[in-house]
Every structure is written in structure tokens, then in C-alpha cells.
Amino acid sequence: MTTVPFSLTRVGLIAAVTLREAVRQKLVAGLALIACGFVLGVRALRDFNFGTPELKFIADFGDGVIAGFGAVLTIVLLAQLFFGELESRTALTLLAKPVWRSEFLLGKFCGVVAVVVVFCVLLTATLSVVLWQRESALRVEGFAAVPAGVGFDPGALWVAAWMHIVRLTVLAAGMMLVACIAQTQLYAIIVGFSGFVGCHLQHVAQGVYSRAGSSAMAWIATLIGWMFPDFHLFTLEAGGAWTFEGVARLTVYGAGYAALALGLAVWVFRHREI
Amino acid sequence: MRRWPLGSRFGCFAIVKSRWRLFATVVAGLALGGAILTGLAVPQQTNREESGARLRESPGAGALFGWLGGFRALAADLLWLRMYAGWERRDLPGTQTLIRAVVAVDPRPAYFWINGARILAYDQPVWRIEAEGGFEAVPTERRRVIEVEQARLALGLLEEARGLRASTAAMWTEQANIELNKLGDIAAAAASFRRAWEQPAGPYYAARIYGELLRRLDRHREAYEWLCSLYPKLPPEDEAADAPLVLARIRELERMLAVPPAAAFRSGR
């Protein structure tokens, strides 16, 4: 059999098909609508707000919605699309043609990342409108609720959105690796969610292990710290301080982990019997 | 790669072996790659470091809330509401636990620290005294012990807050009030009021009270010098600064210290 060279065009085509498939899924529309509803309806929750200024509360809550629903979307969508291809045997038909397995995986990955990017941009834009509207209303009322430095900073909000995209891209790559190893969709989703929570708790775990004082525990902690990215690093609070260098470093960190997970996913998938 | 068919006698061993090899390769790959990448990620010194430190202090809270991200504010608010339900029932351990839980979940707002300290210092001594039979039945010495214990808890909470977030004038003022009203430690309260004044946007009254407390400590000369140095900093148009009151106190101290008219403070206004 003659081998064809790796083609980014084929990756793009598979990504476009994946994106179309994803858009047709009720899950994506449903999650996007619910998340938008939460962001738009956050003002109804302001009666529960005690500690933080109102705009900060809205920004924080919107940030949480993007992070939470974004993670659910990434994990479930990737598992559905990947195992859907395998179960319906369309992957077999596709891979019987001169298409690399790595092209197939990269195409699926890029399609899911495109959905995630649209999701984050849509929700951040909605959040920006909500914050801008509320800040304008507070200023008109002459409220002292917008003290200096606490107002709505669109730049920081979009940087936070970028951090969400990077984190969800890493999550999608990790999920791709899990899906390539797993035999069932349910197993992949459960492991995916566990990994997501685990990556968020890295900093807590590291602190606990370091206080344990055992060198064996410290070694295990270091190993775990290397294996799983620390998602807490990406939690740039909406409206919080940020530097260009910090964001660039975190982007490189995230891209590196995504590439690593994807590389391993390709290796595992090449050894997998479909 | 050599493969054994599923039906062969080595089939199952081959599958197990290949699975182990697969997992080992994935783990080794992630660990090696991650070791290189971890060096690239410089931890950002933002508020999350503070909350991270707080969460590491209490692994239980960390496990529950470490991944909440942006929902932290809402989670803390809901816990605060729950704390109030306990406060209404005068549930001492429940309230204390929930105050700690709230500041573990979201240590950023000063509101939780300050109001938590107020509950510990002012409300809970009353609950404890009433639980022991009421103000009539509990001897003064015992009441004093309870008040000091609770004040120390409150001061501990404020101290912790300053370790985790930028200290604010409001926190020092709260500390000063507890030291003054609950511990009766005038010297400590004076020092705290002075710290409150030195914070950004420190209130003018903190500086005035510092001067007054110096007087109460019989450090009249120090109080006089303090007020003389304070007066030029007070904007005359600001009612909160109350410059005329400060000038009146300066004159009072001059009489007390018998300052000769030639050496008296000149307001220049």
C-alpha cells in the first residue's frame, strides 16, 4: 500500500465535518442556552451577594458558568463524537481510505476546540453586555457601588476568556487521550470528569503532600504534578490583575500539555483495534 | 510489533502485557513532558494564591471548593446565609465552623472576616454567658474569661485575614475596637488605631482616637506631638477630618502641659 503524506487539508475537512456534527447536536445548543440563561439571569442572584461588589460578583459568576459548562461541553461532546464514529463504523470507512489516524484524531480535536472557542466567545460577549449594562445603570444612579479599580474591565474579561479557551483545549486533548484508551463512552466521560476535578485540585494536593513530610509522598506528588496540568493556574479571575508575560507563559504551558496529550493519543490510537 | 491472535494460548497474556506497556508509556510520556512544561508555568501572584493557601490549610474545604472557580463567591454567600440561620439559633459551634468555611471558600472580601470577627467577639460571649445561666448568675470573673477567650478568637481571625489578603483600615479598626472594648487593652488598641490610620484611605477618626488613647495612657506629650503633626494633614473642607476638634484638643493639651505661648502650636489657617 502506498502511503500518502500527512495533510492539513484532510485535518481541516474532518474538523469541519466534526463542527457541523457538533452544531447539530442538541447537547451543544442546550448547554449554550442554559449557560447564556445563567449569565443573563445572574442579577436575580445579587440578593445573595454579601461580600463582593456587585460587578465583581457578576463577573465571578459568569466566569464560573463559562468554566463549568465549558468543561461539561468539552468532555461530553468529545466522548460522543469520538465513540459515535466508532460505534457507527464511519471511522472504519474513513480510515480505510488514505487518511492517517493522526489526521482523524486531529480533525476531531480541532472540531471540538472550534465549538469550545465559539462557546467561550459567545458567553464572554454576553457577560460583557450584562456587566456593561449594570455598570452604566449604577453610574447613572450615582451609586458608590463602583469604586475605583472595581469597575468592569473588558480587557481582563477577555483575557480570562482566553485562559478558559486554553484550559478547555488542554481538557479536550486529555479527553482525547482518555477516549483512545477507553473502551466505552461512559467510562471515558467518568474518567474525563475525574481528571478535570483532579487537575483543578492539583494545588491543594501539592500543599497537602508537602506538609505530610514523607519523601515517598513528595515523590508521588511531584510525579502527579508533572502528569496532570494545574488548571488552577488558568483561573485568572475576571477583572483580576494579569500580565502579558504571564498569559503568554500559561498559553505555552497549556499548548505544551495539549500537544503532549494529543501525541500520546495518536500513539495509543495507532495501536488500537477499531 | 509482534501480535498474538486472541484465540492463541498467549493471547490473554499478550493483551495484559500490551495494556501495561500502553499505560506505562502514557504515564512516562505525561510525566516527562509535564516535567519540562512545569518549568515554563510561572505561578501568578494574584488573589488565587491567597485562596490557594487558605484552601491548603484545610484540605477538606479545598477538596470541596478548590474547583469551584468563579462560583466561589456564590458558594461563600450561600454558606454565609446558612451561618446566619445558625446565628439566629445561637448555635455556637455551627456558627464558628461556618465562619471558617466561608473564609476558606472565598477569602477575598473583607466583609466576611470583619463580620465573622464581630460575631466571635460580641455575639458569642453573650450566648455563652446565657448558656451558663445568664448575666445575673455568672460571676464577673467567669464573664471576663469568656469575653477574653472570644476576643482572642476574633483577633486570631483578623490576624489570619491579614496574612492572606491585603490588610485594610477597616480590619485594623475592628481589631482596635475589640482590643479596647473587649480586652480593655488601651495600649494595643492605640497601636491598632494608628495602623488603621496608616493604611491607604485610613479614616481620620482613627488618628483622632489614637491621640485620645495616648492621653488616656497619660502619654500627654506624645499625644500633643501626634495631634500637632496630624493637624496640617487635615483638609479644612472635609467634615470627617474635623480639624477644629483636633485644634481644640491641641489647645487643651497645651494648657495641661503648660506650653508657653511662644512655643504653642500655630495652626496657620
Topology of helices and strands:
The complex is a heterodimer of chains A (274) and B (269).
Chain A: H1 8-24, H2 26-40, H3 54-87, H4 90-96, H5 101-140, H6 154-181, H7 185-200, H8 202-212, H9 215-227, H10 244-270
Helix pairs in contact in A: 1-5, 2-3, 2-5, 3-5, 3-6, 3-7, 5-6, 5-10, 6-7, 6-10, 8-9
Chain B: H1 11-38, H2 47-57, H3 59-65, H4 72-88, H5 92-105, H6 110-131, H7 140-164, H8 169-183, H9 186-198, H10 204-216, H11 220-230, H12 243-257
Q: How does this structure look, described?
A:
The complex is a heterodimer of chains A (274) and B (269). With 274 residues, chain A is mainly alpha-helical. Chain A contains ten helices and no strands. Chain A has helices at 8-24, 26-40, 54-87, 90-96, 101-140, 154-181, 185-200, 202-212, 215-227, 244-270. Chain B is mainly α. In chain B, 71% of the residues lie in helices and 0% in strands. The longest helix of chain B has 28 residues, at 11-38. Classes of the chains: A mainly alpha (274), B mainly alpha (269). At the A-B interface, helix 3, helix 7, helix 8, helix 9 and helix 10 of A face helix 1, helix 2, helix 3, helix 4 and helix 6 of B.
